[in-house]
């Protein structure tokens, strides 16, 4: 039974009452006009997403759905408590495995999952980032299966993207349907760039000046999320820089400007660990800054998110997050994990291979919806391919039950119809934890599809957290 967030047990849920009345009164033709207006608006602004591997990395608009998703105040309160708890535990885990390793010695997390993981950065051992924050920006993907239960599908602790779409979706709704927006008491999201900047400044090195200089480090215009990089830098009022714009001198990081070098205190990086510094990681990297890691280790600059945070969002580590919560916080998890089978375990592997037609199989270190098998929608040839892959490198794959993700009403070619969704709230961690109400709702636009990733044809919609 699929849970529909607007209509449950044959009746409209209270939080959606006004939306239902609005849809009943809105002609389909009028919605179609508004859909075209939204597409023109996004095209003019330049909100595109590069899809790699399709010949020339074509940029496309991410489909935007006009019908907002509604989250009641009490639902959000419950979810945000769980998000805060989870991110606290993930930060504690990162501090521990690069420190004393107590959770490993206690046998709560297998050592091989950490020390043999490609995201493990031994160079970070003994490191203590400013303000104790490791993953300053976390994107926690949430799915819903019924009226009461939210599940964490995965954790994104490295460079989570999508927040620009959350902000632009709200702006689009304000322009397209101002009366509908004003008829609801919606928690605002516009403060996110300000909150992000305050979080980054709060994590500046202790010895830096009272007004730290923050920059956003991007790989450049060819990156799929470049629009977001430039958008956030502009909204925060900080410089958008590439590796060539920075240099290290006398142990400090400097930015080249028309007025001469300027000291940099915090780098919000949107490039992967291995490209940050050719002297410490990938020697042929043209994206990073020579000597940056040494300056970081010496405490002269903060890098957000911290180097080595990828270990915390590895899909093979994910099953152990509930135990992290118990171990570090002494609490029971408020948000549940999806049951997960690790193909590196013989018993789990046998179970998965026997039930490939029922399960979702993912690469342990994959992202973007690539490298997945959705069992119920797969062919025999696809299952044979994954059988061979799992047998060859079992530790590289995990599997989960095929969840009946909740649906919300969407405006599609056939009219108004339910589509499956997830939610990515963004959690900011500095000297305290901040969560902007809502997040990015991603939509599987194709009928019956469970894949919401924009790289796989998914869309987005505005998420309204009601204040009362």
TrEMBL record:
Domain Circularly permuted ATP-grasp type: residue ranges: 68-444
Xref: SUPFAM superfamilies: Glutathione synthetase ATP-binding domain-like
Protein name from the UniProt record: Circularly permuted ATP-grasp type 2 domain-containing protein
Originating species: Roseiterribacter gracilis
